[in-house]
Amino acid sequence: MPHRRTFLVLTAATLVPTAGWLARPAHAQSAAQHATTFVRGVGEQLVAVVNGTQPDAQKRAELTRIIDGAVDVDGVARFCLGRFWRNASSQQQQNYMTLFHQVLVNNITSKLGDYRGVSFIMGKADMRDENAVVSTVVNRPNNPPTNVDWIVANPTAGPKIIDVVAEGTSLRLTQRQDYASYLSHNNDNIDALINAMRQQVAQAG
Amino acid sequence: MRVAIPRHFLLVAALLLGNLVGCATPPPASDPDAVADFNETNDPLEPTNRVMYSIDNGLDTVLLEPVARAYRFIFPQPVRAGIHNVLSNLGTPVQLSNDMLSGKPRRAGDTTMRFLINTTVGVVGIFDVAKGWGYPDHDSDFGITMALWGVPEGPFLFLPVFGPSDPRDAIGLGIDSAMDPFNWVGQGTAVRALDWSRFGISAVDQRERHLDDIENTKKTALDPYATFRSLYRQHRRSIIETARNDNRATIPVWFPLSGAPEGVSYTPAGASNH
Q1: B13–chain A nearest CA distance, Å
Q2: What is the pTM assigned to this prediction?
Q3: Could you give the CA distance from residue A100 to residue B77 in angstroms, rounded to a whole number?
Q4: B128/B84 Cα distance (integer angstroms)
Q5: Cβ–Cβ of A169/B231 closer than 8 Å?
């Protein structure tokens, strides 16, 4: 019985992707493949740094470099400010953008200890509109496996990560709603948000 | 898997909630962007919900979180996984009922096979053998069932003890509890003690699994309440969409493609061969 099952699973595993590939236009297939290669590369770099033995300051510098290279941080920052971006002065936009970079890196590096021993498994990749969605399963020590989708814009020419969706929750949408709520409880004052972010960065050291 | 609730618990919770109802003030109609935000947030009871959130958060800080940390400290990961699997296996009747009520025969089949395999080969559910055999677990509760029936989500609710919810999920919790056969059997001290133990262990198990994520959210969010509200809704909507899109055909087990992994829908090879 187990042998037959294995055989059936193998048959399905070869037939189903083949059927999908035949149904899909060739360029979409290659874009999704590009995105998969890109995400695997970024993921391997991140895991190598997180699980590495170098001191935390060096890890932080390396993570900042990887994030700035792989993530469209400016685009994510603008998305997270939503409708308030248009109302902000150019000085406010600039301050916000600088702080957003720092907050993002802090949020990731503050978890370095928890993430030690992290690994991931690549899953399927699909095109959704212009973007590629690359599925992975992330295994962190002490935590149940987490389904993480990486949203990659421009997968063939200059891929950039524009969102990370963990168990169905979009990181950038959650951040946008956090900021929106904070702003609505502070008279929509963008300087209040900038001050709060400045405090966050200062506290993280 | 959701936390199993002992009888009468929901009634107490409902009474607590009913005592403290305040409403959020909508923004003026002259600011259409703000009005759009307000409607999208769909949290008319926000002041009350925030009170509930701070009470829950206080209780969590002094009670549930320390217990969950101790639980993680005492029991190694494989033991905790075993306990989680047993609790999950005990949830089979509710899960199966909801798979059937929501018209998902393949999911019902998965649940049945998981129960049969894990209860026997998996030693009363300690080991999730079925997952490796092609029957992965899935979320199934009456909130999801109602969503698939077309019942709308409704405004956000923050429930005492149970945390983020909405009217659909809150009713779902009650129905799930009512359809749980463990809540029907017997009476007396022993049964009640078992009910409450299961409730308590489920709560600690769930809390332990989210220790790192909740800690990180509280640390990084400017408005943790709004962030949890957003996370809860996104997560539930994603579970519901996964269930909605799980339209694997009900084909006999001897048919070659019946071993397709979860989430892969069967496409007749001929249909896409041109």
Answers
A1: 27
A2: 0.84
A3: 36
A4: 10
A5: yes
d(CA A137, CA B12): 39
Integer Cα distance of A192 and A183 in angstroms: 8
Compare CB distances from B230 to A16, A174, A182 and report the shortest one's residue.
A174
* Pairs across A and B, CB distance < 8 A: 113
| Chain B residues whose beta carbon lies within 8 Å of the beta carbon of residue A111 | 212, 216
CB of A176 closer than 8 Å to CB of A184 = no
Q: Which of A20, A23, A179 sits opposite B222 (nearest CB)?
A: A179
N-terminal to C-terminal alpha carbon distance within chain B? 43
Q: Which amino acid is at B169?
A: D
- Best of A102, A169, A187, A200 to mutate (most B CBs within 10 Å, chain B): A169
Contact A106, A204 (CB under 8 A): yes
ipTM score: 0.82
Q: Residues A190, A91: contact at Cβ < 8 Å?
A: no
* Cα-Cα-Cα-Cα dihedral sign, residues B46, B52, B58, B59: negative
- Locate A112 and state its tokens: 């370095």
Model confidence pLDDT, tens digit, residues A59-76:
889 999 999 999 999 999
Contacts of A90 (CB under 8 A, 6+ apart): none
User: B269, A19: Cβ pair inside 8 Å?
Assistant: yes
Per-residue pLDDT tens digits for B79-109: 999 999 999 999 999 999 999 999 999 999 9
Could you tell me which residues are beta bridge partners of residue A120? A138
Read off the tokens for A111.
């978890």
